[in-house]
Amino acid sequence: MGKLWGGRFEGGLDPIAWEYNASLSFDWRLAEVDVRGSIAWAKALMKAGVITLDEQHQIVKGLTDVLTEIRTGKFEHLPSDEDVHTAVERRLTELTGPVGGKLHTGRSRNDQVATDFALWLVDAIDRVDAFLKLVQKTLVARAEEDMGVLLPGYTHFQQSQPILLSHWWLSHFWPLARDRQRLAQIRERAAVLPLGSGAIAGTPFPIDRKFLANQLGFKAYTPNSIDGVSNRDSAAEYLFAAAMIGIHLSRLSEMLILYTSAEFGFIDLSDAYSTGSSLMPQKKNPDTLELTRGKAGTLIGRLTGVMTMLKGLPSAYDKDLQEDKVPVFETTDTLCLMLPVVAGVVSTLKIRADRMEKALNPAMLSTDLADYLVKKGVPFREAHTLVGKAVRRALDLETPLNRLPVSELQSISAFFGDDVNTVFDFEASVARRDVPGGTAPAAVTIQLQQAREFLKSHKIRSSVPHSETPHGGDGS
Amino acid sequence: MGKLWGGRFEGGLDPIAWEYNASLSFDWRLAEVDVRGSIAWAKALMKAGVITLDEQHQIVKGLTDVLTEIRTGKFEHLPSDEDVHTAVERRLTELTGPVGGKLHTGRSRNDQVATDFALWLVDAIDRVDAFLKLVQKTLVARAEEDMGVLLPGYTHFQQSQPILLSHWWLSHFWPLARDRQRLAQIRERAAVLPLGSGAIAGTPFPIDRKFLANQLGFKAYTPNSIDGVSNRDSAAEYLFAAAMIGIHLSRLSEMLILYTSAEFGFIDLSDAYSTGSSLMPQKKNPDTLELTRGKAGTLIGRLTGVMTMLKGLPSAYDKDLQEDKVPVFETTDTLCLMLPVVAGVVSTLKIRADRMEKALNPAMLSTDLADYLVKKGVPFREAHTLVGKAVRRALDLETPLNRLPVSELQSISAFFGDDVNTVFDFEASVARRDVPGGTAPAAVTIQLQQAREFLKSHKIRSSVPHSETPHGGDGS
Amino acid sequence: MGKLWGGRFEGGLDPIAWEYNASLSFDWRLAEVDVRGSIAWAKALMKAGVITLDEQHQIVKGLTDVLTEIRTGKFEHLPSDEDVHTAVERRLTELTGPVGGKLHTGRSRNDQVATDFALWLVDAIDRVDAFLKLVQKTLVARAEEDMGVLLPGYTHFQQSQPILLSHWWLSHFWPLARDRQRLAQIRERAAVLPLGSGAIAGTPFPIDRKFLANQLGFKAYTPNSIDGVSNRDSAAEYLFAAAMIGIHLSRLSEMLILYTSAEFGFIDLSDAYSTGSSLMPQKKNPDTLELTRGKAGTLIGRLTGVMTMLKGLPSAYDKDLQEDKVPVFETTDTLCLMLPVVAGVVSTLKIRADRMEKALNPAMLSTDLADYLVKKGVPFREAHTLVGKAVRRALDLETPLNRLPVSELQSISAFFGDDVNTVFDFEASVARRDVPGGTAPAAVTIQLQQAREFLKSHKIRSSVPHSETPHGGDGS
Amino acid sequence: MGKLWGGRFEGGLDPIAWEYNASLSFDWRLAEVDVRGSIAWAKALMKAGVITLDEQHQIVKGLTDVLTEIRTGKFEHLPSDEDVHTAVERRLTELTGPVGGKLHTGRSRNDQVATDFALWLVDAIDRVDAFLKLVQKTLVARAEEDMGVLLPGYTHFQQSQPILLSHWWLSHFWPLARDRQRLAQIRERAAVLPLGSGAIAGTPFPIDRKFLANQLGFKAYTPNSIDGVSNRDSAAEYLFAAAMIGIHLSRLSEMLILYTSAEFGFIDLSDAYSTGSSLMPQKKNPDTLELTRGKAGTLIGRLTGVMTMLKGLPSAYDKDLQEDKVPVFETTDTLCLMLPVVAGVVSTLKIRADRMEKALNPAMLSTDLADYLVKKGVPFREAHTLVGKAVRRALDLETPLNRLPVSELQSISAFFGDDVNTVFDFEASVARRDVPGGTAPAAVTIQLQQAREFLKSHKIRSSVPHSETPHGGDGS
């Protein structure tokens, strides 16, 4: 039975309803930040004249002891602990006696949990960001290592034009850069202190919220107490950012899976990131990549679930909001495995440059052939049609495009000259695409520099220090 | 390191990749059905001449021992147990020696897990159906108990017409009846045996799949081995049905929450299903109903997640499919709490018939007033306009509609006669709606009978017995 | 300004609010079924003694004229037409005079639109089902035509075991069979008459709902008027079924896209279902398949949208429900293009049996090699390990598995005999999988027969005739 | 038949496949930005030496004429116009002759459509932001106008503590402030030029991408051509931001709907934003608010759809990406009605301060009563329990909490003194919550100032000017 709110009630909660309602099994992950928030609150209460300095010391000492129990795994849960807040306050009171009962003055679990959640989320964002950076570094390392290797570029899953493998690796760097920008912005919006909002109306004690925010590493506090307790934008934003990360890694994974197939054979996964078949001894399966692709779906589902829950609410705090925690916790767990695994896959795979090169087909230079005509003065649209006919002819004659006799070409257009064969050079084709962002080695070298620059200059941390350690123990 | 597929591999799996890949932490819930499936498979292997009767006995004996360990919680997991199938086979071989290594002949984890999943799901559906029936019975009981009580019916959240409370309770019975029909149909489609499909191509041993199906209580087996291993329709269907249940309970919960507010005051929740506030001593919160509303969002998210995962697949088996398990397991857990909690809330709440009656407003009889004119020959459309004017007049005069002097009414239409006051009788209004499905007491009495009939006649079980007990241990 | 409800109101609707609220732009698609429902209602009103036979005749005549205007595109919309129901009644009254104003007696737009929607949906399901059947027939035709062709089966996107192409085609037949079963069941649940439910409480006139149901081709009517007007289960169910169809076609499309790539080269799409590139003259893109894959995502989104909307509702009718129409209409349009396009793609593509055969790799027979050892008495688990070693050896020696000298094999296990080469026969491997549902030609022949049987015996229509023609015009 | 890519193809596209593939029906909305992008491209081609200044002038002149046709509605579509790009180029060539065929040199529809989309999106964001600002201003105006009015604050839908109505209005201001911050950040990320990326590999002509970006008002260009053509992050981000807006407006709407009910009666909607019932003459329905609530579900569905589509893709451009357009267009249309409608509802509704005041219940001051004890030295936890008992006692005696005799209170705790009645003052309770963000009039006055400050200082526009006018016509 919830000790926190018992006075008005006659009977106990039905046991199944208790189980349904209890959140300790998952919100215990907030235990450290809950203590952190409570220590700050105790100091603020003293500063507001609600408790004495001596009472503050007793409470902070008690909370520090609770924290030690939490960290060493010695905290003992009771069946009556409804949630993390109840459990911590219950234990505090056991350790300190009645003075512990003064801690909850002027606050509510509504502003308390919102504060805990903000502290936890900011830390989670920092961890995810670090893993994103790891994957980015891995991609940069691959781009450096594989420089010079050519492979077909695909659009519509069809061979389109030759590209540099390094260019392809980097094409997966920039989406993660955007992910990190998003995370930094979400962190900024999440790092706003709700404490002091009470249940809905604000606290009636002269709490110095600026002091509180500083204590907990926030740069700002919520401007409206109703919004302060019911705002879960940052949960939704975080799940959205996570789902975008999932999408980006899924697209990379899909392509790598394809490249590992016998038919492509462009890469060889390390045994350290592959699994076998219980039935077929020859199989080497890209399970880690498939799971990444699959889990991207799960991440989208978690976002949908939380948004659907939020959409069903009226103003202010409702218990439905409790459903935000599990998806945020599980999503963080997913990302903190998914990202290092992808980094591991990418850094340990072996590329098979010979297979990539062999896959290049002269027909991939059709655009270059059209550009050849353009340079002779043929409008591109017409050049495109003429080359289309050449491609058709080559298909009909079952000959590679570059083996089509010049006479055949000239029967299509007199603009085709004897120099036409110079077109059929994959390296030259790649080198020609030397605009910023293009696949030419020179352009990719600059792009690599930009990527390194991003890694160096991008900073996520702007407000809340992500250490989970409470700041000292006395009245600073 | 996976014992099941090690021969081809040189190095071990990276530890993080191992954790990412391992499914034992969640698929252990399949342990009992996995053993059940394996026992049937051992018999089928014997029948196909692949193993001897003696070998079958050894294997079945071993599996039965493993099952006992599972049920008594004595099964010891090893760090190398990749998934439930590996763990069970590993333990079997420890208990039986090399003969255990014969069990996996001719099957794959692909058809094995699909079979396990079908067995588990069928059982889960039976459990959920039983809880749905419980909620339905509770609604019928309330409808019986509260017969005769009137309250406002709401459309657009606005008072519309008076209805019987029993009619309202039953309006939440029929959606659950549809849910149960859906579940029965999904169960039928789920209860089709995949075993014998191998990894993708079928098994090369002369397995009698009909015998296998019978052993496991299935009425049919999959007609195509590729589809057999990659079909997860029933996971999606089940999650959809669960989300619909969530929607139906959310709509009921939303309305009950509203009814508990001070402004409505139509019902009083039992303390056994309410909680208090840590800050505000007077609060009694409908947390269980709010959680039901919130969890309905989570259920929709799980459906989205699995469908998104499935949509991203090519033909045949891919590891992504592993992501179907957690949502199906968690959804079952959610429903097996949500449904009994709602039943508990509904059966223990107290209605406040006086508040309901007091809320009835004569304006809710405006349609009856229009019908009064219709009976005097005024076309309904015109009658509607005339009564609209009367309502407007009453609003302007700040008088209840039934207190508007007949002279006022007659200034709007001469068809209003002195008998107009007979219209303003809530009971009579309700009694007039005596079509099938209407709110008249006579109609609701028939409806109640139909509801009881449904409870009696609806059967979910058609093929797979839902007991988890394996069928005997010897060569039947 | 809505003529239907104006009396009580003082000012007109704000123009933007009008645009926001008006549904005529999309619900006009209900015009024919709305008239159909109204004709039946007029008859029911006469039968109930509310209008005379002569009035019924006038109204039915008027409605029939309105229907003609609708069908010939001559119906003129007025800016004041709020929705389809308003528009039809307005026009009816113009044509018939005041008697038209009697039509709406005893009904509400709530039960009217639910009835219209049920009629429309049943018809939509029939159309979608017919297209599904078309795709199924196309798959059967391919399976018949391509019988005997072998190709690699893929699991985890990796070559696993050889299969029959016909078997693969049929693996896409059965998911569609489940889709059609689902649709038939949804149709059954959708085809329940809501009319007679009024706004919420039922109608006060002695309407014969059984007669009404018969008139409109329904076998049953809703048992509870509140549920009758607010139930949108069938919209959600239909969108779910549509999304599953999308998933099934997406999986097929994904694989076909892959097969069209240069690296696989297994199939050649017809020019009639391919498009080119504006830049690259050689490109032939499987756009139709990519769109199918992409639209499957859109279909899932529509389901999510409607379920999220439904989840946010209280009991009874709320205007939010209007949001069910556009997704249901658009989803039907999507399916009625997607399905024939897929049928067209499949029936016109050219398979390249030579490329398929060439892709077969002896390593795909590793399981057969293990089974060879099994037949010599080696437990499968051990055989799997031994063959794994052989595969490893072949990889190390860069030799195909079937070229590994017998001596090498024997150094791994003495059970390998000189007859081991008989294993390396793709046709024999396929033929061995001769269980029901297996890939052996004999088994696939039976499966084909089952598929044809399904096509012949499956019936969707059980209750509502899907013609949109109203049933006669007079008082029968 | 697509003129853009015909050369290689033998037969025409199947008519249904054509309809399936054609996007003109929806991407025509890009027509103006497409011309704008093409004008800039023509200049860049000239600058790169690909076309002459004279050719540039001809092309730009032609495009300007096309633009005029677009704007005046005189552009005639041909059945062969596959998409907006094809249509514009076709018309250009009709107007200019063969020189028009030079425009597409060095670009692809892949980078072209990505550029068009970015231009369109930036403009859409500006429009949505302006409407958000309108709603915010309306909320500020209400907060100013309604200052001093008290009403119950609700948590868990239950009365919790008295608050200022102005505080409640502002609680809906800040979520929209976060929405606007998000939009500004998304705009920044969207406003990066893809043009110059070609189909995948970059353009082989020496295009000055910085010049191009400047011409089109972008501050940056994409750093990688593969990512440049396949990145749709901004579509997903925008749909997410839109869904969050939907959630915020849905929560406001839900509460307003509730407030309009007879039982609450806190507000009266203007007739300009209400509708009536076709059946019940007395009804006045908050349809506009219900639609807002319902459409929030649709917005979430559109996000899900696009994310699911994106998740199913491999690297680089695939046709599936075409599915991003309709949801983005429709979402913009939805928001551009939803936001002004909500602004209209809020600004025109009438509050009923008397009803709000009457709803205040002394039990809402229980926390104040506990705080009273706290000030006498009772630890809050104990005070909470004591007040809980007082509430219980009052319920049992069926007396309001403030009428409970002091003797009764003192039998619960001796700390209750004769001054206890001073607690029961709603105004004083509100005034006590005078922390930043609290509901005290002084705090709300400061908050109002902060809101006005936000309105003044927040700027969305940072890079792309949102005018759709192309910048001049000659080679500047």
Describe this structure in words.
The structure is a homotetramer of 476-residue chains. By secondary structure, chain A is mainly alpha-helical. Chain A folds into three domains: 6-102, Fumarase/aspartase (N-terminal domain) (Fumarase C, Chain B, domain 1, Orthogonal Bundle); 109-200 and 216-358, Fumarase C, Chain A, domain 2; 362-432, Ribonucleotide Reductase Protein R1, domain 1 (Orthogonal Bundle). Chain A contains 19 helices and six strands. In chain A, the strands form three sheets. In chain A, strands 1-2 form a two-stranded antiparallel ribbon. In chain A, strand 1 (150-155) and strand 2 form a beta hairpin. In chain A, helix 6 packs antiparallel against helix 19 (441-457), helix 8 packs antiparallel against helix 11 and helix 15 crosses helix 16 (380-396). Chain A is elongated. The two termini of chain A are 37 Å apart. Chains A and D meet through strand 1, strand 2, helix 7, helix 8 and helix 10 of A and strand 1, strand 2, helix 7, helix 8 and helix 10 of D.
